[in-house]
Write a structure and sequence with these properties.
- It comes from Calypte anna (Anna's hummingbird).
- Keywords: Magnesium, Metal-binding, Transferase.
- Its cofactor is Mg(2+); Mn(2+).
- GO terms for molecular function: metal ion binding; poly(A) RNA polymerase activity.
- By secondary structure, this protein is of the alpha+beta class.
- The chain has 2 domains: about 210 residues, Beta Polymerase, domain 2; about 170 residues, Poly(a)-polymerase, middle domain (Orthogonal Bundle).
- The chain is built from 20 helices and 13 strands.
- Strand 7 and strand 8 form a beta hairpin.
Length: about 525
Amino acid sequence: KKTFTEVQTERSEQAERTVLIKCPPKLNEKKLLQYLSTHGNIKSHFFFENRGIHALIEFSEKNSIASLQDAIEIPSAAEHHVVPFKSRLFTFTLKNPVRQAAEETPLHLSPQSHIPVKELIHKLCLADSVSSQMYILLNEYQLTEENIRLRFLACSLVRDFARAYFPDSTVKPFGSSVNTFGKLGCDVDMFLDFRVTEKHATAMKKGPFEMEYQMKKLPSERLATQKILSVIGDCLDNFGPGCTGVQKILNARCPLVKFSHQPTGFQCDLSVSNSIAIKSSELLYIYGSLDPRVRALVFSVRCWARVHGLTNSVPGTWITNFSLTMMVMFFLQKRSPPIIPTLDQLKELADQKDKLVIGGRDCSFVSDLRKIKLTKNTETVDVLLGEFFEYFGNFDFRKNSINLRKGKEVNKPESSPLYIWNPFEQDLNISKNVNQPQLEKFVAMARESAWILQKEDKAQRMINKEPWGLAALLIPFGKSNPSKMKNRVKGIGSETIRSLLDSLKLNNASSIQKAVGK
């Protein structure tokens, strides 16, 4: 298995040799490829649907793209005046539509979204075991090879803009696009990286002179980040083909530019070098690569959480997918024997090239997967799913926090309902946003799910043509068995009700005070 950095480098280079072509609806694939081959050897290609048919074409050599660009015209400005930025996004039309359309061949289109939950449940019911169901879900929801390549291409196209100002910069994806836990349809988090420039500086230390660039100086790194993102955001908004809905969110804790990249169909978030976020992506990549059960369990738990409204695509007081993934990792560290190592154990395996300190924080851990011993744990993935719900359905959240660095519960340093230590910034709680009612809802759903997996009669449910196993967990519980649900989780909601009443009292009290004040 390749290291995280090797995979990223390989995919970034692949993206630089790639173009994206909007094609006519009726097309002869062979003739298109023959025409493009006159500019260089085509290494790979695929077609997909996104507001029309598109073709992603990867050439063997980068200079083939320059040859193709030389042969392509600037659109005529009869109706609109165009911004003459020559990107790697092209539109192909037929010169003789009637005759050429008659020669069309059926195209295989690569799916870029996952199937609806209803369709998924039907597929799961045809499986022969809960384990099989979990791997079917993984297969349906995980990022495909084609989708990953599109993500890297989106980053590479944004990099073309950034290099107009910063020639040595790169734009790379991080988070779910690269950590092996991304779901089809998830956003593309990308960051603008200037570290290539820093490497050049170390190579110029020889000779009798100190040489350095004259550069604009600003009072803080944050201000520099805001200015850079502001300019790149304007650039994408004004000149970027297919870049729409550009929002500059520069006063956030981590300043970013949000935009929709219509040619690839992705919602994108662009930030500036976020080294700790990259290390988190690499850590999850390692965990996801060590054992196939890890990803199967995460995907099942996250799909379950989304169905029951425990997670949401908009920010709020609910558990995030990242927090949920970290809870699964912690659970797998706690198995006997453990299925994945703790972060401290990975740090012990690190060699000199793995050593990394960011902002005074030690972010070192081994990057070579071959150095990590595989687990002797043989539990099946369906057993792990039931045990996950059992474990967190009975976890003492009032007292304990979750620490992946040590792989054990530790006393909470403060009173947040859910406390998950950031693996690298140990003074941060990655689940600080979660409130008590949301945590109690998670515990209630976990207990109900553990009960269903333990007690259900699979054979009887199959005879009755009812969803069973994982499929039964992907139906909102209130719809199928509201009275049973109430009995099993009796008492859990009392704290929720109490906290809601308290908050109502506080709101009423404050509104009365305001009224009195007036």
